[in-house]
Each structure stands twice: as C-alpha cells, then as structure tokens.
Amino acid sequence: MIDLHSHSIFSDGTNSPEELVALAEKGGLSALSLTDHDTTDGLPRFMAAGRNSSVQTVPGIELSAEFGEITLHILGYLFDPSHEELQAALQWVREGRSERNSQILEKLNRLGYDLTHDDVRKHAGDDVVGRPHFAAALIEKGHFKHKDKIFQQLLGKGKAAYAERRRLTPEACVELICKAGGVAVIAHPGQMKLASRGLRRLVKKLKEQGLGGLEVWHPTHRPHQITLFQRICEEYDLVATGGSDFHGTLTPDITLGRGFGDQCVPLSVLDTLRRRSGIPI
Q: What is the mean pLDDT of residues 22-50?
C-alpha cells in the first residue's frame, strides 16, 4: 500500500517531512510521496528521512493552475527538483504569494482590523504564509472566534479582504513537470465538479502536453467517480494514481495511506509511474 498525496509544514500540512515518513512506516506503507503546494523546499529533508526508513520516498509536488472559475491542481512525480526552469516558475509563484499577502493585509487594515506581517507570520512557522494564517491571527486578536466566519466574511473568494494570486496555466504545469523528467497527474478530479464530457476534453488537451496520469483514488471520490476515472485512464492511456491528501491535524478524519479508512493504493501504481518516467524498475 502506498500514498502519493501528502503535505508537510512546507505548504499547508502540520507535520514535518520526517514525521510524515515515520507515520508512513508506522502505518505499514511501502511508499510515500510528499506533494507540497508549489514548492520543493521540503523534499531534501523528506528524501533524507527515506534513506533511513523502510518507506520508499517519492519526490512530488502539487502545482496550482488557473482553470476558469476554479483552481486545477496538477501533481508531479519523480522529477528533478533542481530543474532550473521548474524552480524559476516556482519562484515566480512565491513572489506572487508575497504580493498577495501584502494586499490582504492592506485590505484588512483598511477594514479596521489591526494586524501586522509579524502577527500573521508567527502562525506560519516553517510554512508559507497563506490565508489560514491570517485567520489564526484574527482569532488571536479577538476579532473572531471561528475560522469559517472569517472566510465567509473576509478571506473567501470575492470577499472584502480577498486577493487573487499568481497561478500557472494547466498546460504550463504539465510541461514543466515533463521537462523536469517527471510524470504529471491531474489531482482529485472529482473536486472540479466537471461533467464527464468536460473532464475528457481537459484530459485530451493536457495529454497533448504530456499528461501522464489521473488521481483516481482520493478520500473525496465516490465509487461511481472512481469507476469513471478508471475508464478515462484506460481511454487515454493514463496512470491511475491515488493518495490520501493528508494534511495532518487539518484533516483529522483522514489517515495517511488509508484516507477515511478504506483506501488502498497498490505499490504497482508506483512501478507504473516509474516506467512512464523512464526509471528502471
């Protein structure tokens, strides 16, 4: 059993890379991929931890792409984290996130909420500062009691303190991962709420750019969706992948490797990904 979708403190998870590897070993997983959002910063520690573990550690990432009114996520596996073009794109995204945080803070201040960058950053730790950390700072200051209210009133898309962020196109995400020697996979397609025809159109378009897989198994996917996604993988010669999308204490009902308890992604999926990337089995 393996898990090809997890997050650490280097994006929006609550566990260190070393803790994730230890949890995977304790849970009996054969392999684990760290797929932090728009960053490879946690991979050196993650891969090092794997060298002292029975768990195979797989370099990964989850890139955010602009796709109409929704955000499309593209997972990447088995790529070279030091690839210059990939790192340049990630730097561009990071710079945009910094600009966005300044815009959010400015809007909150205009609305009468007394916050500073330091108030927000202390809630991030090693994590990249994002909207959840603004919410934590607002709660600490006594402006709100619950995070949900903050997103409903201020930080949710289109709300008073919301600011757009830089995102790559889906085509650019796939191309970057492929150029870095990896396999690009559409993450949790069920969350996109596309009809089967729309998903097939997207898959066909990205397949032309080098798309290699579709995340079939995910805690939010229902049985009929899994059947559909498996069929699409067969139609377009894609690798059917899966993972728990584990975020630590932020997803308390989800277990690493098992999702809500019944998920089981076989080791053969990783072997297939390796063949696609040209790595000898």
A: 97
Mean pLDDT of the chain: 93
Domain tally, the chain: 2
* DSSP 8-state secondary structure symbol assigned to residue 281: -
The parent domain of residue 129 ranges over 112-155
Report residue 201 as tokens: 């159109």
- Pairwise CA distance, residues 110 & 93, whole Å: 26
DSSP secondary structure letter of residue 60: E
> CB neighbours (10 Å) of residue 120?
23
**Residue at a domain's end among 129, 155, 181:** 155
102 domain residue, yes or no: no
Instruction: Please check whether residue 254 lies inside any domain of the structure.
Output: yes
Residue range 54-113, pLDDT digits in tens: 999 999 999 999 888 777 999 999 999 999 999 999 999 988 888 999 999 999 999 999
Give yes or no: residues 146 and 254 share one domain.
Answer: no
Task: Give 2's strand partners.
Answer: 31, 265
- Helix/strand/coil for 86: helix
What tokens were used for 156?
A: 């949710």
CATH code assigned at 176: 3.20.20.140
pLDDT for residue 127 is more than 70: no
The two three-digit tokens of residue 178, written as one number: 């492929």
> Is 0.85 surpassed by the pTM of this model?
yes
Question: Residues 250, 6: contact at Cβ < 8 Å?
Answer: no
Tell me if 95 is assigned to some domain: no
Question: Does residue 247 lie within any of the structural domains?
Answer: yes
Cross-strand pairs, 66 = 71
| Helices H / strands E in the chain, number of each | 10, 7
